[in-house]
C-alpha cells in the first residue's frame, strides 16, 4: 500500500516545497484538509503547485519565535499535502482540498523571488507516515472515545457516532486531532508525536486538561 499517488517514501517526495503558514491548521498523513485561498501570494502558490507536483507544506508559525508579521518564524515540523480537489469561485478564490502525505522537518528556508515562502525539507524522521494504519494496534481506542464523549457532553455537541465507531484507529485519531479546537502548541504537540499511539495519548491528555479548565475545577492528585 502507498500513502497517496505513489508516495512510498521520502525519495518520492519533493525536497523543496512551498509552505503555507497557518496557525491552528493541522494536517496529518492521509487526512483531508479543505482550504479557502484568497490572498494573492497564496493564489500564486496554488497556481505554481498545480503546474508542478501539487504539493504544499502546511506548517504553523511560531508566535514566540519572532520574525516580521508577514514572515514569522516557523515551527520546524509540518506536513506535506497534495492538492486532490480544486475549484475556482466567481470572485477569484480557490477552494482546494489537501490530502496529507507525510510530515517533514524544515532544513532551511530558501531565498526566493516568489511572494510565498519555500523550504528545503526532509521526511527521513517520519518514515512510518508512509505506511497506512501503522501503529493502530497500540492506540487506546476506548480512552480516545471516552475523552471525545466527555468533551461532546461538556460542550453540548452533536457527532456522528455511527461513523466514529466504524472508523479505523488511524482515521479516528487523526481526524479528531485535525478537527480539535485546541491551540497552536497543542496542535503542534499532536503533529510532532512520534507515532499514532503517542498522538492519541496527547489528544486524550489535552482534552482532559481542557475539560478541567472549562469546568473551573482543579485536578486532583491520585
In total, the number of strands is 6
| Inertia-based shape | globular
Approximate helicity band: 25-40%
Show unreliable segments.
Answer: none
Distance between the termini: 44 Å
Give the SSE string: EEHEEEEHHHHH
As a percent range, the share of strand residues is: 15-25%
Main beta-sheet strand count, sense and barrel state: 5 strands, mixed, barrel
* Tally of separate helices: 6
Query: Structural class of the secondary structure composition?
Result: alpha+beta
Q: Radius of gyration from the CA trace? A: 18 Å
On the 0 to 100 scale, the average pLDDT is 92
Order the strands across the largest sheet as they lie in space: 1-3-4-5-6
Amino acid at each position: 500500500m502507498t500513502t497517496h499517488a505513489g508516495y512510498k517514501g521520502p525519495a518520492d517526495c519533493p525536497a523543496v516545497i512551498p509552505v503555507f503558514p497557518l496557525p491552528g491548521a493541522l494536517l496529518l498523513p492521509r487526512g483531508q484538509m479543505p482550504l479557502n485561498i484568497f490572498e494573492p501570494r497564496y493564489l500564486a502558490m496554488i497556481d505554481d503547485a498545480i503546474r508542478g507536483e501539487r504539493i504544499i507544506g502546511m506548517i504553523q508559525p511560531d508566535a514566540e519565535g519572532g520574525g516580521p508579521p508577514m514572515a514569522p518564524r516557523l515551527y520546524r515540523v509540518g506536513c506535506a499535502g497534495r492538492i486532490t480537489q480544486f475549484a475556482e469561485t466567481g470572485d477569484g478564490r480557490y477552494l482546494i482540498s489537501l490530502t496529507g502525505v507525510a510530515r517533514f522537518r524544515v532544513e532551511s528556508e530558501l531565498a526566493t523571488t516568489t511572494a510565498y515562502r519555500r523550504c528545503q525539507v526532509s521526511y527521513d524522521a517520519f518514515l512510518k507516515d508512509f505506511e497506512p494504519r501503522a501503529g493502530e494496534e497500540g492506540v487506546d481506542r476506548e480512552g480516545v472515545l471516552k475523552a471525545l464523549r466527555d468533551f461532546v457532553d461538556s460542550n453540548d455537541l452533536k457527532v456522528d457516532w455511527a461513523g466514529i465507531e466504524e472508523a479505523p484507529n488511524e482515521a479516528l485519531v487523526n481526524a479528531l486531532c485535525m478537527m480539535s479546537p485546541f491551540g497552536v502548541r497543542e496542535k503542534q504537540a499532536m503533529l510532532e508525536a512520534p507515532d499514532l499511539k503517542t498522538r492519541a495519548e496527547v489528544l486524550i491528555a489535552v482534552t482532559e486538561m481542557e475539560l478541567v479548565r472549562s469546568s473551573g475545577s482543579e485536578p486532583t492528585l491520585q
